[in-house]
Design brief:
The chain has twelve helices and five strands. The chain is an alpha/beta fold.
């Protein structure tokens, strides 16, 4: 059973039908992309997963708003999925990546993992991403960027880098989700970083 609400982004029709059948099987609430923005914002008090169709990652991902990616969990269905694409997804705050030809079992496994606050990527992609972060020493830039943030923003930043969702951060710090969002947006503006994945990359050793 999956506790998260499942939101369907701009998914091709055949895949949409398959996903609806899967979410019905798993007894979770499915919400179509129309009107996605309204329902997505209304679901702030619930766990939620947005499913994306990514045809060209280099075009699709930059067009996603940081506010959207900072909320809930995100699973990408890619026309062509390889280690480089997965690494790009990880760095930009996604929680899982699948090929559009993924089997029902793979889709269910991905949804269950993400629902349980786990990432769903290949071992190769995870290893590449982790190793690339380990090669980054603590830099003057990290020190400078930290100096721009308040103590509360640094607390939020630390939890973001641990992979916590807005809902989990709010509960951990005993603040509202809107306050968490405000802190994250302030961090983005001050550090000129545009995604949670990039924040984690920059501050991994802070």
């Amino acid at each position: 059973m999956i506790l998260s609400d499942i939101f369907l982004g701009d998914i091709p029709e055949p895949l949409t039908q398959q996903l609806c059948q899967i979410t019905e099987l798993l007894k979770c609430n499915t919400i179509s992309h129309d009107p996605l923005d309204f329902h997505w914002q209304q679901a702030d008090q619930h766990k939620k997963i947005l499913l994306h169709f990514v045809d060209d990652p280099k075009q699709h991902i930059p067009n996603l708003s940081t506010e959207l990616i900072s909320e809930g969990k995100h699973l990408a269905f890619c026309s062509s999925l390889n280690s480089d694409t997965e690494t790009l997804l990880i760095a930009n705050g996604f929680h899982g990546g699948l090929s559009v030809s993924a089997s029902i079992i793979e889709i269910i496994e991905a949804l269950k993992n993400i629902d349980n606050n786990k990432l769903y990527f290949s071992h190769d992609a995870m290893s590449h991403y982790i190793q690339s972060r380990k090669r980054q020493p603590i830099t003057q830039r990290q020190t400078e960027l930290l100096s721009l943030t308040t103590k509360k923003e640094q607390q939020v930043l630390s939890l973001v880098c641990q992979g916590l969702s807005n809902e989990q951060i709010a509960a951990h710090l005993s603040i509202s989700i809107n306050t968490v969002k405000m802190h994250i947006q302030n961090i983005f503006k001050k550090t000129k970083v545009s995604s949670r994945g990039q924040l984690s990359y920059v501050f991994t050793q802070v």
